[in-house]
Amino acid sequence: MKLYTRTGDGGDTSVKGGRVRKDDSRVEAYGTVDELNSFVGQAAAVASREGLSELVAELLEIQQELFDCGSDLAFADPSGRDLKLTEASATRLESWIDAHTAASPAIARFILPGGSEVSALLHVCRTVCRRAERRIVTLSAEVAVHPPVRTYMNRLSDYFFAAARYANVRLGVPDTEYIRSADVFRKKSDD
User: Which residues cross the membrane (predicted)?
Assistant: First the structure.
């Protein structure tokens, strides 16, 4: 099998159900999800090297789900299709976020991306995830987008923040606070 097809030399590409320009909003959306998946793979490799096996397992599951997101986004017309991503994936992310947050020290101020290498990479994942989410929002203003994809991507950036902090805790590396930050993460009163 040849890796090149030459069919995109004119600036268009195939999606499920047709062809579009390579700069189409749909291609931008699933292309950015693919970029994110590559960074997640890099973060998983570093987490593995650091012995963070629970994070590696989570990141490998996230990579599978990012492929599901890309597949669901690649339909020219997703209506009536058997799409892959479900709301259960976002719910599971919430449980991971809660666990990582509970295991990390409370924060009052913004923190700077970094600390350990794996934490820094997870922050890169967080920012690329936010860009992917913006691309998906742009696409959803133009055409129908499978709703669980939007929910998942929104929750996923929160996961990366919580996982980055957790990685630092596990590796004994403190977060670095943004020194000019006000106390922005105050506990809300239940009153």
Answer: none
